[in-house]
Amino acid sequence: MSALFPALRAASDRPALRFGADTLTYAELARAACALAPRLLTAGRVAVWATPTAETAVGVVAALLAGVPAVPLNPRVGERELAHILGDSAPGVVLAGAADALPAGLAELPRIDVVTGTAQVPAPCSEPEDPETPALIVYTSGTTGPPKGVVLSRRAIAASLDALADAWAWTDADVLVHGLPLFHVHGLVLGVLGPLRRGGELRHLGGFSVEGVTKELGDGGGTMLFGVPTMYHRLAEALPHDPASVRSLTKARLLVSGSAALPVHDHERIRAATGRTVVERYGMTETLMNTSVLVGSEPRPGSVGLPLGGVELRLAEEDGSVLGAEAYDGETVGEIQVRGPNLFSAYLNRPDATAAAFTEDGWFRTGDMGVRERDGHVRIVGRKATDLIKSGGYKIGAGEIENTLLDHPDVREAAVTGEPDPDLGERIVAWVVPADPEAPPAADALAAHVSAQLAPHKRPREVRYLTALPRNDMGKVLKKALREPSRG
Ligand code: MCA
Ligand code: AMP
Q1: Are strands 346-347 and 148-153 parallel, antiparallel or unpaired?
Q2: Domains, the chain
Q3: Model pTM?
């Protein structure tokens, strides 16, 4: 396989990465990553403390060059989730910034502090030949149990990024702006490896803010913006009072939203204020990107566009039968199944889950329900599992939060649902039966418990107290009954 990052070989003085005041040219990035890569060769797997910094980008690129899979970790990861990820992925070394304090569990691992300003020119840096070499292991939630490690190969990353480049006319002239976290596919694969594969530039905001976007996009030099719907919602809210952000968005070449559905209302507000259409693309940790609205095509709010180059997509009924082209009527709903070079290799240590994720004829079951228009455009209409919640663009399994709440001494029973939220898309709601009805645990104590064990984005935003959970004859919790307002 050819190089994942041809521009690193050229090692020019063009800017590659900017994180606040920290900037790296391609030559500087090549020096830093090539100096680090040989130190990772015997690590087996490399954990990366994935703060939104240049150190994270250098660490991941070095691991890719070494051919050693990188496991990006949420720097706010809680105790229980971290223990699971470390137990499952067994990294031989952890990469961090020199100033990072690492939590117990990680602090005991051999540590390498990533240095971004390496002065000496290291030996020329090679890359693994085999496209199937695992490049990343990204943890993603399922409905029950702890997150699964999705093994992504060099082949999948290259294929998906190149298909996006075709769909978006993404080149080395583009300057990408975003404030996405670097421990998921959106921020890391699309948002960091994407511009580096093109030989373009990334300007990372450190974290999302309307002010940051306004400063870097448009007159700031940024040509493209990536974000989750919550970020576009916050922009849509700000635009009517903020001429500077209107100017920035208007001047950008491409605004892309993904990770969850962008409500038509937000599409329309952004279009009304700026004349610009937000392009939606649809992907998953396991599949990287599947579809996108093409740059320059007619605006289609609510559509995730067409299958990307190399991606096959079909709809299947409940019984597994495949819907034919006659069902492309914009109404007939089926589960979206995909096949292509963009797909993951396996769930780490989970051959059972890997096998269950594919049909007998080798298509990946996404669990997303969709329709296709007559011209093939895809619209996502929901998910098969109600126990998967999308909040702020993060996928969160109800089961992992329920198990964590049940560990709290003051909780007897717990159920978790997602409720519509204008900002987050869905808001996590915990339904709790206290151990002592006279002394129910405080909502913020339960939120702090979940934050400390799992991650802050998995914390319940609201807690509702009940004397018993509604259950069917088999003892299964009736989540539908929980959502009825009469019970609130
Ligand atoms: C709040 N915080 C707490 C607590 N409460 N910390 C500890 N304990 C607590 N009880 C902290 C948070 O860590 C955070 O700190 C700050 O308070 C605010 O947090 P929060 O309320 O969670 O912020 P938010 O307003 O909900 O954030 C919205 C957001 C965020 C910025 C849109 O949800 C986000 O970054 N989403 C991106 C998700 C994403 O990248 N998804 C991609 C996966 P601090 O502010 O310092 O952090 S999907 C994917 O990859 C597929 C392939 C795809 O299709 O893209
Ligand atoms: P994750 O597993 O965190 O990678 O999340 C993947 C899921 O996000 C998909 O299965 C979809 O349910 C959802 N998703 C991603 N992009 C979109 C989009 N543009 N519209 C609707 N849902 C999306």
Answers
A1: antiparallel
A2: 6-178 (3.40.50.12780), 388-481 (3.30.300.30)
A3: 0.97
